[in-house]
Design brief:
- 45% of the residues lie in helices and 19% in strands.
- By secondary structure, the chain is α/β, with parallel strands linked by helices.
- It has one domain: Rossmann fold.
- The longest helix is centred in the middle third of the chain and has 20 residues.
- It starts with 16 loop residues before the first strand and ends with a helix.
- Bound molecules: ligand DLZ.
Length: 151
């Protein structure tokens, strides 16, 4: 269960400490993303902890704190659904730009598992839930572990 074009990453997480930093909006989809990330990290043998933040806007600052406190990598998970106001763009851009900046400034890997969606169904299709076509939480976790091995 993976997205079109996504690689089959062989990852060994032995000895790697990973913090899942997960937003709290859109609970059902978030639960799927977190479970997928955990499945992939457990399968790779990584050591896993989890921190919940209120919304995707708060992901970057808490990801940075997790890396400064000893995590070898972060998996950042969020769900942002387009509404009738420009808020979607503000939150999406803040999360994406902020996480990019944290990864580059700290030199540490962040797996990017923030879904930006037009509606809830798109999230259900991607969240590794029963009947989902894709498992974006697992993909983000595998990418984080693969990047640890490159740095
Ligand atoms: C305010 C807001 C809105 C409208 N939508 C979402 C969303 O779809 N997904 C999400 O993760 N967070 C959303 N937020 C909350 C912001 O990320 C943030 O938590 C608040 O603006 C408080 O700083």
């Amino acid at each position: 269960m993976s997205g079109a074009g996504s690689p089959e990453l062989e990852v060994d997480g032995t000895g790697i400490r990973v913090t899942i930093v997960a937003a709290s909006w859109h609970e059902q989809i978030m639960d799927g993303l977190i479970a997928g990330a955990r499945r992939a990290l457990d399968a790779a043998g990584a050591s896993v902890s989890e921190v919940r933040v209120p919304g995707s806007f708060e992901l970057p600052i808490v990801a940075k704190a997790a890396l400064e406190r000893g995590a070898d990598a972060v998996v950042a998970l969020g769900v942002i659904i387009r509404g009738g106001t420009p808020h979607f763009d503000f939150v999406s851009n803040a999360a994406t730009d902020g996480l990019t900046r944290v990864a580059i400034d700290t030199g540490m890997p962040i797996g990017f598992g923030v879904l930006t969606l037009d509606d809830e169904q798109q999230g259900i299709d991607r969240a590794g839930l029963p009947g989902s076509k894709e498992d974006k939480g697992a993909e983000a976790a595998q990418a984080a572990l693969a990047t640890v091995q490159l740095l």
